[in-house]
Amino acid sequence: MRDTRESRLLLVLLIAIAFALITVDIRGGEDSPVDGARQAAATVFGPIENGVSSAVDPIGNAVTAVRESGDRHDRLARLERENAALKAELGSDDRSRSRLAQLDKLLSVSGKGQYGIKGAQVIAIGAAQGFSWTITIDAGANDGIQRDMTVLNGDGLVGRVTTVGPNTATVLLASDPDFTVGTRMEGSDELGFASGQGDRPLRVELLNGKAEIKKGDRLVTFGSQADKPFVPGVPVGVVSRVDPSGGDLTRTLYVTPYVGFSKLDVVGVVVQAPKKDPRDTVLPKKPEPTPTPTVTVTVTPSAPADGLNQQEQ
Which of 282, 257, 279 is closest to 196 using CA atoms? Predict the structure, then answer.
């Protein structure tokens, strides 16, 4: 249609009619005179609108999904980071609880033995000097640590300090083959010398070849002159095997140490020896023996046979 004066007048007229119909429809409300026409139009064009809407909705949803995918990715990444941080925090809490438990046991041992200790953490384990069984701790000369000091933990004897730096020190473990410590048997006071055997039990040579020793007996450190390298009374281990004496001057024992040398973490260096020998007071309580159940058998005499009853009659 060309843009003529007549076409412009027709367009204005149609617009005026449309506004008039809208006004009448609004004022008529539910009784609007054009309600029938509107319903008829809805009947004709409604299915077409639904079809167009059904065709267009997936596209709109896809566009929305693309637009929101970045937000979801950011939220997922944030949640993953939060979960990782939470797991790390929980792991840290577990480790903290473990260290607190170790520290409590260490303080209990030092209190019973009246040992003045400097707490330290194991920061390395391995062959610091050749193939020796050693650990490195995060305490050194600046913390008052000196060579030939006793090292223990909440279970018992760990070893002795061999090398000292400003902020670290090397400890020779009691399991090392070059390690030797004087020992005393609980109760009997039999003396001996314990030597390390790597991952095997400690070997103890008792000075008395006729000493009465049995499996389950316990040992503590005897102590050294001037308390270096060993203070007295530190738990060493439990007798696991006793070799026959065979008339020898000494007697050989094998002792399972209290300390697990492969899982050391919190230790204490004895920087002040006790004023008197704690003897056996630092040893842990002995486990309660398991009671053996007693079985009582009651014998009930049987009734006499019928034949015997007839002969008696």
Answer: 257
Cα–Cα distance between 42 and 33 in angstroms, integer?
A: 16
Q: Residue 171 pairs with which residues in a beta bridge?
A: 135, 161
H-helix or E-strand spanning residue 159: strand 157-164
Widest pairwise Cα distance in the chain: 153
| Distance (Å, whole) CA 88 – CA 80 | 12
pLDDT tens for 90-138 read 556 777 888 889 999 999 999 999 999 999 999 998 764 556 799 999 9
Rounded CA separation 61/39 (Å): 30
Q: Are 136 and 169 in contact (CB under 8 A)?
A: yes
First CA to last CA distance, the chain = 146
DSSP state at residue 29: G
Quote the pTM value. Answer: 0.64
What one-letter code names the amino acid at 184? Answer: R
CA atoms of 30 and 169, how far apart (whole Å):
96
Helix, strand or coil, per DSSP, at residue 305: coil
* DSSP H helices in the chain: 5-28, 35-113, 306-312
Contacts of residue 116, defined as CB under 8 A and 6 or more positions apart, other chains included, come to 110, 270, 271, 272, 273
Whether the per-residue pLDDT at 26 is higher than 70: the answer is: no
Dump pLDDT digits (tens) for 249-272.
889 999 999 999 999 999 999 999
Going by C-alpha positions, the residue among 207, 260, 258 that lies closest to residue 234 is 258
Answer yes or no: are the C-beta atoms of 245 and 253 closer than 8 Å. no
